[in-house]
Specification:
Layout: H1 10-15, E1 35-46, E2 49-60, E3 64-68, H2 75-82, E4 90-95, E5 98-99, H3 105-111, E6 113-115, H4 128-139, H5 146-159, H6 175-187, E7 193-197, H7 205-220, E8 225-229, H8 233-239, E9 242-247, E10 250-255, H9 257-260, H10 264-271
Parallel strand pairs: 3-8, 3-9, 6-7, 7-8
Antiparallel strand pairs: 1-2, 1-4, 4-5, 9-10
The structure holds adenosine-5'-triphosphate and magnesium ion.
Length: 277
Amino acid sequence: MKSRTNGEGLRDKVAGANPAPVTIAPMTQPATGATLLEARDLSKHFGGLRAVASISFRVRQGEIVGVIGPNGAGKTTLFALLSGFLPATSGEVLFEDAPILGLRPDTLCHLGMARTFQVVRPFPEMTVFENVKAAAVFGKQGRRSNQEILSDVEEVLRATGLAPLAGQHPPSLSLPQRKRLEVARALATRPKLLLLDEVLAGLNPKEIQEALPFIRSLNEKHRVTILMIEHNLRAIMGVCQRILVLNFGQLIFDGAPSDAVEDARVIEAYLGGQQHA
Ligand SMILES: Nc1ncnc2c1ncn2[C@@H]1O[C@H](COP(=O)(O)OP(=O)(O)OP(=O)(O)O)[C@@H](O)[C@H]1O
Ligand SMILES: [Mg+2]
């Protein structure tokens, strides 16, 4: 859902009248791991605009946590703060209990945090294989043999279903394939925490249906903790154990997806008031 609309309720929007409903079963197992990421009173102001306003939350090892909110709510800005692409105005971020604000994206990548971008940006002149290999080389600190890197790349290509497309160039890929390549490049850095920014955007219901088990398999098979921004509420309800809801830079909800659709502030953010952006 891209913006606030009036009319049907939030629960109806999630249930939807979509011709190809997302049928994946909701996550039921709460993660019990230690805290992997913690934001404390995190803020980012652009001039007078409070794009991220004093947000605090935790992500535990093994969780898949969704980040939702109307256009302009601050979701991508939050990711940029967490992953070192933007300096924060104030606050603190801890990764494995160590403060990380001020560290550069490549340092954070070496520590085990990788992100995808809302606008996919592979190197167009390099093949799928070379794109993933470049990420694998970049992501790892310390020297590794070419053989180790190649076997990593092959594993990532298999896990993301891109192995048959290894020799192609990104411009010849479909959007779902390019999105997978974006995830593959992040995955090749061997992250503990993966930040996914709208990897389902632009996919049709069938493609989303195929992508959700893939995201879950990254979490279950590859033991990657996932924080994912997503506009498709039904998809996020299906794959996330917990969601954070942002509105005008503020965190207005942190809890189970099933509770979010009953929450007065969440309903107001999505269905009431004026349109954002
Ligand atoms: N570099 C920037 N300079 C000034 N304002 C910015 C900058 N980046 C984002 N903003 C503003 O901060 C607010 C939050 O933007 P952000 O991109 O984080 O929202 P979002 O929740 O990711 O939205 P969308 O759902 O459209 O992707 C918006 O009002 C946006 O215009
Ligand atoms: Mg965004």
